[in-house]
Amino acid sequence: MKIGFSKADEAFRQEVAQWMAEHLSGEFASLRYRGGPGDEHSFPEERKAWERELAAGGWIGLGWATEQGGRGLSICQQVIFHEEYARAGGPGRMGHIGEGLVGPTLAAFGTPAQQQRLLPGILTGSEFWCQGYSEPGAGSDLANVQTRARLDDTGEHWLISGQKVWTSLAHEADWCFVLARTEPGSQGHHGLSFLLVPMAQAQIRVQPIQQLTGTSEFNEVFFDQAVTRADNLIGQPGDGWKIAMGLLGFERGVSTLGQQMQFQNELDEIIRIARANGASRDPLLRQRIAQAWSGLKVLRYNSLRMLSGPQDGSLKREAMIYKLAWSTWHSDLGKLAMDVLGDEAEILEGAPYQLSRLQSLFLFTRSDTIYGGSNEIQRNIIAERALGMPREARAV
Fold first, then answer.
1. pLDDT digits (tens, 9 = 90+) for 65-85
2. Would you name the residues annotated as active-site residues?
3. In order of start, what are the domains of the chain with their CATH numbers?
């Protein structure tokens, strides 16, 4: 595990910080600290324009291989970019799923033709992606996917029918990667395939899900014989589970350090308010703030340890505990925010009753231990896959 950075790395840090200061201004100034979890509905068109600004500056695909249009930067420099991006208040990325998940998955499992056709739209910030994994009966239990896909009579197109749920920004996406069952009668991990599906078709209906925050960045997505080309299958029929797990491995990549810097921004805001309203004088609140600070440091060191391994989508033990660790920490931070605010936590200024940043943080963090794999399931994964313990008994 490497904790320090070289002089060249620190020079790169200054380059990133200067670019962010120069470009996150003017027409983009209003995007600072916006569009993160609980606020993803904000400024979608402006954030798409920001993606194009990042692309013009060469800040998309930093870790991608140069032959795939990326810059091939080191893990250290990728970490630095994500940290400085969050430190500067860079907005929630509309292109995160494309750059962080789809790109590496195509690089690992896609054909050269698929890479040449699909990677440029991500690199230029002109095409956006959403994730078609969870279903009403297959959330944390992803192997229970029931969405079906079959080749049409010509063999040139897949026809997809089923329902996905909790699909972030599906209403803004151009593409969706879909885990679907392509082998009739198959169960569990078997018979699944990984398909890339264009969203702009009448056979796909997107329905928003309103959350506690009053926002609707999550959606249900209904596929009614939705069509995608036969060559939009990644890998072979039946490879879906392997590819899906590889993609989830990429999700535990360098962007986790950027996520933690966003957490730091939230903690800094809590500390600022605690000092201003006197809550910092309460010894119990001071202790909880100190615990939050030290807990965030532990998350950082574990992430650096996690990133010291192979970057091929395989999950080390350190990666398997990350979701459980950050979701619990962040959920506690939401509670801390409300206790520091005191009575103000339950007050809104007036119509239209817009939530403050910390109120939105609290409400959204109620879901942290559920989405992306519930904590209960994560504990099973740690026990069975990381520690090699006997599998939990399951009903036949």
1. 999 999 999 888 998 998 899
2. 251
3. 7-94 (1.10.540.10), 129-238 (2.40.110.10), 252-386 (1.20.140.10)
